[in-house]
Design goal:
single chain; 410 residues; mainly alpha; 14 helices
């Protein structure tokens, strides 16, 4: 009977397993590439103190903004309001416009907050203008690429009738790692090879542009004939994204505090982006699915998870085990092949799998109550669930990963 039940469960959720597993595997392999890239550029982390903090905050924020965009587009497809059009008032145009404005404004806030955090702690760091320059220039170069990818994915998903809730978050999380990381380092290269007065001037101009564009959308008068969805997204998302900066920066701070340990064991530095990406991907899949179910009325926002929610939790576990094992194995062999150091295959597998399952358990509970809380407060789950879940999981995933590394005496 249990075997029949298991087969039925897999059959009922075939699309989630097939598309979700494919998306998480692809996204993890891509994120490993980002980790390999990071392990080869450790000199920048020494030359630019505090870079690691803004680096991981920027990666997390890209995944947060564009993961939420993918969730909104997925919900629009489910309820029949999506169309392949950039006309004024369309869902696609509203998400396109709001994502650019939010990316620019949050990049500014991120640079300011990172510098303020390090000043408060009395730590050495680069200047405020350098922080903001790296955050905005690197972040926006990545944002335009991710925006294009999100639109292309929505178009293909719409044409092929895919459930993009199962693929948008993993792919956006992976693309966020692979694209944001080199763009941040490119901006860091510009800082190292430019006179300080150039960076200071760029800081002033970029700050002015970010504030003007943000206020222009937030304060513009809505057309009575059409609902201003872009304004709604910016208005509702910006407060939660500002809150989400805190765990993102804390995640970067935790990594920065152990950067010497991670640099001496390149396999861990290769694994880290992929590990955090997988946590983001799984939380994105779960929150997207829960948000769509709540919108459609197939899942009630109850105080305790229902059987339907429990089935989604099980899907997360079943996706987690093979992917986290693959990550530990792949990070170890990538380090060996590239001539870098590794603590050994058993430890790499142990850290990845144990930390992964702990993270998956936390995100199941966290994502459910974030979606339920957003609904009970009459907030849009697509605007609030993914940003809160992914940013919080960045911090939690980082703390779990670092704790396992220290506990296992790597």
């Amino acid at each position: 009977m249990r075997e029949i039940g298991a087969v039925r469960f897999i059959g009922e959720n075939k699309e989630a397993f097939s598309m979700g597993l494919a998306a998480t595997v692809v996204s993890s392999l891509v994120a490993l590439t980002a980790g390999l890239f990071l392990s080869s550029l450790t000199d920048y982390l020494t030359l630019l103190p505090g870079l690691m903090i803004v680096l991981y905050a920027a990666i997390g924020m890209r995944g947060t903004i564009f993961g939420a965009m993918g969730s909104r587009l997925g919900t629009a497809m489910h309820i029949g309001t999506f169309e392949l059009s950039f006309r004024k008032g369309s869902v696609l145009r509203a998400n396109f416009e709001s994502s650019i404005v939010l990316s620019l404004f949050m990049s500014l806030a991120m640079g300011l907050a990172a510098r303020g955090l390090l000043l408060a702690m009395g730590s050495d760091s680069i200047t405020l203008s350098q922080f903001v320059f790296i955050s905005i220039v690197g972040g926006m170069m990545a944002s335009f690429m991710l925006l294009l990818l999100n639109v292309l994915m929505a178009r293909e998903g719409f044409k092929r009738e895919w459930d993009i809730d199962n693929i948008s978050s993993p792919l956006m999380a992976a693309a966020g790692d692979l694209i944001t990381l080199p763009m941040i380092f490119l901006a860091a290269w510009m800082v190292l090879h430019s006179p300080l007065w150039v960076i200071d001037g760029a800081f002033f101009v970029l700050t002015l542009i970010a504030v003007i564009l943000f206020l222009r959308v937030l304060l513009r008068k809505s057309d009575k004939r059409a609902y201003d969805e872009a304004k709604r997204i910016v208005k509702h998302s910006s407060p939660i994204l500002l809150i989400c900066l805190i765990p993102g920066l804390m995640a970067g701070l935790v990594i920065d505090s152990q950067v010497e340990t991670l640099i001496t064991s390149a396999a861990l530095l290769i694994l880290l982006p992929a590990f955090l990406n997988e946590g983001n991907a799984l939380s994105g899949i779960l929150t997207s699915r829960l948000s769509s179910m709540i919108h459609m009325g197939t899942l009630q926002p109850d105080r305790f998870p229902s059987r339907m929610a429990g089935a989604n939790f099980l899907i997360v576990y079943m996706l987690s085990i093979p992917v986290f094992m693959m990550l530990g194995l792949a990070a170890h062999w990538l380090a060996i092949i590239s001539g870098a150091s590794s603590p050994g295959l058993p430890l790499m597998l142990g850290i990845s799998l144990i930390a992964g399952l702990i993270t998956a358990s936390i995100l199941n509970v966290l994502c459910y109550y974030i979606a339920v809380g957003a609904t009970r407060l009459d907030l849009n789950p697509d605007d609030h669930s993914i940003p809160l879940a992914t940013s919080t999981m960045d911090m939690i995933g980082t703390m779990v990963f670092v704790a396992l590394v220290l506990l296992m005496s790597v």
